[in-house]
Design brief:
Elements lengths: L8 E6 L3 H12 L4 E4 L7 H4 L3 E2 L10 H25 L10 E5 L2 H16 L5 E4 H7 L9 E5 L3 E2 L2 H14 L3 E3 L3 E7 L2 E7 L4 E9 L20 E11 L10 E6 L2 E7 L4 E5 L13 H14 L7 E12 L6 E4 L5 E5 L9 H13 L6 H6 L13
Parallel strand pairs: 1-2, 1-11, 2-8, 4-13, 11-18
Antiparallel strand pairs: 3-7, 4-6, 5-6, 9-10, 10-11, 12-15, 12-16, 13-14, 14-15, 17-18
Helix pairs in contact: 1-6, 1-8, 3-6, 3-8
């Protein structure tokens, strides 16, 4: 799939995570010559994530604009996956089992009630369950679970399978992959005309899409006024494996445990993903023993049988956080450049809609999704502005 860097492209995408690959795939389907530049595709947050597609159960106060974007992306997910599986020949593990949010003490139960009221105020559908009803729905739950909230509209996907399918589909669509780090943007006369790789080779392009996650702000050649205000937000994730004596939960479980949050996401493969911490640690990716212990402790408070699972992997990822936790997608005050970053904890969920938004910007078809472009416009921040 790797080709010489000298070949010009209609579009160069900097970043080979789910966001970059999704955009590249859609752009190539429109007949554009697309090149993706990434030294290690699918190795960052896209590889580490749990794959929850849960805009309703994970809605947060003050993030109502993000909710609109997330719900629209979830609406597109089934058709996105159907097409991707057909084109790639690979299964991506989409599950439509819903999410069960549970509380383990009186304080957590109150928080759960407030979440239910907030969801209802936004017109979102969820059902309050007693502790007994929770255990009837999920027999693995602890006797300490006092109440629950069932969100049947939430989904999940195996993010690693999704990534492999996207990589295969982009290859089949003619996308070129260059596994050399992007050194800098090439700018002439106030316009981006391509990228210069770390080995000094150049890739001319009509449009550059910057989708490098938390590294997006550090690309050389990017003027200060056009730098997206993103930062790395560290998260620990554990991957466990069920045995013949340890059945999996039937759906994603999100637990409130003494004021902390933990989620458990089952896979059809027998894997159980447990996460995730939220830490402001810069670009540090070391695994802390204390974080692993806390995740296992809280997961055990929700599902005691977790002790019998095989712990297969402990890792960390860096989410690209923005000042308001919503993505930054759009044109900036540098002709020829489109940014697509800042997805924070929703990168997997927002992959389909981001791909469509980026494609619309490149081909000049933005009217249908005008309201969504406004929600994630770079112009909402003082440090980065929209063209015009």
């Amino acid at each position: 799939m790797t080709e010489p860097a000298a070949a010009a492209a209609d579009v160069v995408v900097i970043g080979g995570g789910l966001i970059g690959l999704g955009a590249a795939w859609r752009l190539a389907q429109r007949g554009l010559a697309v090149t993706v530049v990434d030294p290690a595709p699918l190795s960052a947050a896209s590889h580490v994530a749990a794959g929850m597609l849960a805009p309703v159960s994970e809605v947060r106060y003050g993030e109502e604009p993000l909710l609109q974007l997330a719900i629209e992306s979830l609406r597109r997910y089934p058709s996105f996956v159907d097409e991707l599986e057909q084109r790639s020949g690979l299964e991506v593990g989409l599950r439509r089992d819903g999410t069960l949010v549970v509380a383990t003490d009186a304080g957590d139960r109150e928080e759960l009630s407030e979440l239910h009221a907030f969801q209802a105020s936004l017109g979102l559908v969820s059902s309050i369950l007693t502790g007994r009803e929770c255990r009837s729905a999920e027999p693995l739950l602890s006797p300490a679970v006092q109440s629950g909230l069932l969100v049947e509209s939430d989904h999940s996907v195996d993010n690693r399978k999704l990534g492999r399918a996207l990589l295969t589909a982009t290859r089949q669509a003619g996308v070129r992959l260059i596994t050399t780090r992007c050194g800098e943007l090439i700018v002439h006369g106030g316009r981006v005309t391509g990228v210069r790789l770390e080995d000094r080779r150049e890739v001319p392009a009509g449009v550059v899409v910057l989708a490098a996650g938390p590294w997006s702000a550090g690309i050389d050649g990017l003027p200060p006024h056009a730098r997206p205000p993103v930062r790395p937000v560290k998260g620990h994730i554990l991957r466990l494996r069920a045995t013949s004596h340890t059945p999996l939960p039937t759906r994603s479980i999100r637990g409130f445990v003494n004021g902390a949050e933990v989620y458990l996401v089952p896979r059809t493969s027998g894997e159980l993903v447990v996460g995730a911490t939220v830490e402001e640690m810069g670009f540090d990716t070391t695994v802390r023993a204390g974080a692993v212990r806390e995740l296992l402790r809280d997961a055990r408070a929700v599902v005691p049988l977790i002790d019998e699972f095989v712990l297969e992997e402990t890792t960390t990822g860096l989410r690209p956080g923005s000042p308001d936790n919503a993505p930054i997608i759009g044109e900036v005050e540098l002709d020829g450049l489109i940014v697509a970053t800042g997805h924070h904890r929703n990168g997997v969920l927002l992959t389909p809609i981001t791909a469509d938004l980026v494609t619309g910007l490149v081909v000049g078809e933005t009217a249908e999704l005008a309201a969504l472009y406004e929600l994630c416009s770079p112009g909402r921040f003082a440090t980065i502005g929209a063209v015009g």
